[in-house]
Amino acid sequence: MILELDCGNSFIKWRVISNPEARVVAGGVVGSDEELLQVLSSSPGVELSRCRLVSVRSDEETQQLTGKLQRAFSIDSVCAESAQEMAGVRNGYDEFQRLGLDRWLAVLGAYHLSGRACLVLDLGTAVTSDFVTAEGSHLGGFICPGMPLMRNQLRTHTRRIRYGDDAAERALQKMMPGRSTVEAVERGCLLMLQGFVQTQVEQAEEWLGGAYELYLTGGDAFMVKDAFPQAKVLPDLVFVGLAIACPLS
Ligand SMILES: Nc1ncnc2c1ncn2[C@@H]1O[C@H](COP(=O)(O)OP(=O)(O)O)[C@@H](O)[C@H]1O
Ligand SMILES: CC(C)(COP(=O)(O)O)[C@@H](O)C(=O)NCCC(=O)O
Ligand SMILES: [K+]
């Protein structure tokens, strides 16, 4: 079985797939390396033979994680790497190595699945957008703070914005003007998020000419998906790209 990891700035998304059928056997989201080791060693029937991963963390952090996996399960890891061109997509960054690897894999996955122009939005710690033409030319994209960064900036840089996670969840059940701090902040940040996605859709009309596929991925994709019924919501989009960038030869 193959362990697949997507190491973001806040969470590690993990999956175990069978080899060679590539059937998903187990998966989840964890907050730390230790939590990952623990959940993997307590998952019944999971027998790992190797690992492939993508990380936007520092090289040191990524090496620490692969070292822990080697010691705990005796498996080698391969890390996805940047490329100028792959699977019919040409990286649009001036310095292709600087494009976030999670973005690159999501773009590879989206173009592979759609075979046409696409707009890829990844809503995690940061929110990223990437535009790809029907010919596979990556035009670049935009980066802005995601929901966790927006709400934490307000909590950190003001004196009187303080509330807990439970209240935050309750506040988002309705979207009328907030009548408490938690409602005002949570609903305000969600409107920022939805507004950003709406702007990207408008940009796509301009840059991709209307006939494109919209993909939403990342932990907070569910917060905006109802406003964009045309979107394909694919939590595993980065893993689709990971299989392309790190094939099991
Ligand atoms: N099951 C989940 N576990 C952890 N975070 C989740 C989950 N579902 C949604 N989220 C939300 O997803 C966001 C993080 O998204 P993610 O794509 O994992 O970020 P990153 O790739 O930057 O680590 C957080 O705002 C978090 O509240
Ligand atoms: C933009 C990101 C921080 C997003 O990370 P995430 O929210 O998925 O944790 C990451 O893709 C990254 O570090 N990119 C490098 C900068 C760039 O893409 O231009
Ligand atoms: K992201």
Automatic annotation (TrEMBL):
Annotated active site: D102
The EC number(s) this enzyme carries: 2.7.1.33
Subcellular location: Cytoplasm
Top EC class for this record: transferase
Main location: cytoplasm
Residues that hold ATP according to the record: D6, C7, G8, N9, S10, F11, I12, K13, T125
Cofactor(s) of this protein: NH4(+); K(+)
Function according to Swiss-Prot or TrEMBL: Catalyzes the phosphorylation of pantothenate (Pan), the first step in CoA biosynthesis.
Protein name: Type III pantothenate kinase
Lineage of origin: Bacteria, Pseudomonadati, Pseudomonadota, Gammaproteobacteria, Pseudomonadales
